[in-house]
Amino acid sequence: MTTPLYRLLTDLGEPAIRFYLARRLRRGKEDPERLGERLGRPTRPRPPGSLIWLHAASVGETFSVLALIERLLAERPGTALLVTSGTVSSAGLLAKRLPAGAFHQFVPVDRMAWVRGFLDHWRPDLALWVESEFWPNLIGETQRRGIPMALLNARLSDRSFRRWHRFPGLIRPLLQGFAVTLGQDEAQAARLAALGARQARAVGNLKFAAAPLPADPAELRQLRHGIGDRPVWLAASTHPGEEAVAAQTHRRLKERHPTLLTIVVPRHATRAPEILATLASSGLRVAQRSRGDVLDDTVDIYLADSMGELGLFYRAVDIAFVGGSLVPIGGHNPIEPAQLDTAVLTGPHVFNFETIYDRMIAAGAASKIADEPALVEALAGLLADRAMRDRQADAAASFATREAGVLDAVLVELAPLLDPIDGNAHARA
Known about the structure:
Layout: H1 3-12, H2 14-26, E1 51-55, H3 59-64, H4 66-75, E2 80-85, H5 88-97, E3 102-106, H6 112-122, E4 126-130, H7 136-144, E5 149-154, H8 158-165, H9 168-175, E6 180-183, H10 186-194, E7 201-202, H11 217-227, E8 232-238, H12 242-254, E9 261-266, H13 272-280, E10 286-288, E11 301-303, H14 310-316, E12 319-322, H15 335-339, E13 343-346, H16 354-362, E14 366-368, H17 372-384, H18 386-399, H19 406-418, H20 421-428
Parallel strand pairs: 1-2, 1-4, 2-3, 4-5, 5-6, 6-7, 8-9, 8-12, 9-11, 10-11, 12-13, 13-14
Helix pairs in contact: 6-7, 7-9, 11-14, 12-17
């Protein structure tokens, strides 16, 4: 596939794209009041002066660059920062977390007319792309307009690397459009170089620079009061199939720990009705956070179907299974529980965080389990041995501080692109 062919297909595919967006809208995956943003029609004016545009696909990517956003704004007070993403959940969380001077818009769907509308309006002085979401029209048109671009914290799973390797005529010119390319680690930098990136380097993973997930102190006190002295574990960021595993695991562990409490935080809170049905069918007593159910000693499973509260639940427990890993999703960020002194467990499917998990396991900061029976045994050991889970939690907290200087290193790499921005803004004015 070539870039002109891709553009032709996306141009001709407008009816199919609109149908797809309408379907996502019905399923609650698009914001009805801001759907125009997905069609290249911004919903707010461009601020005066210089503008840095940062694109991050979803929740995980946006959280990893919040510290970078804060530093950029602090060091360049006259610069505005536009953050784009493609999911409703990321938009909701960014509305609460973005500092003054930064604002969110949905990224346009990768159709050239919509891309041009977006770029015509915002006219960014610099574009920063995070991780691995490569939209050919959007990247290509940004490059054609002479807007400097940098690729930060980039990663490619084995599957993505093999897929892109089949289309060198598409990926190579895209990657070569980035003046700075920073992989999450040396292996990722090597993959990017093999696909055509110029001088791909690794200076560390920005996920280590992220602040710990927030929690409301009053809510934390109330949650800890509800848990009391019961043994407890957390199934975090779960996906379909993993809630049933959590319920069965609870049933088996309850034979040894009769007062056990299991907390389930799904990755997508909109799945709450189906999760509730799954948990209720197990015969266990379930309390649902979104309904305001009381968490008392009779509750077996607490379904925490709320948005933006994962930091609250990581703080309230000292054992966490990180989901998206017993099913082939690729896992989720283990640094988040590690920062909060939590013993970390994961399933085998962690291709999105493979290097981090390998390092954590080698450091005794996490344990990988193969399946439900192994999860039961791992939890049983940690619940029964306070010293063991303290050692693993301490190792996790220590691991989370290992790349504390990554943000400074990234800013050094970006300096040649950042320094000319003020001059560009004055010239445009």
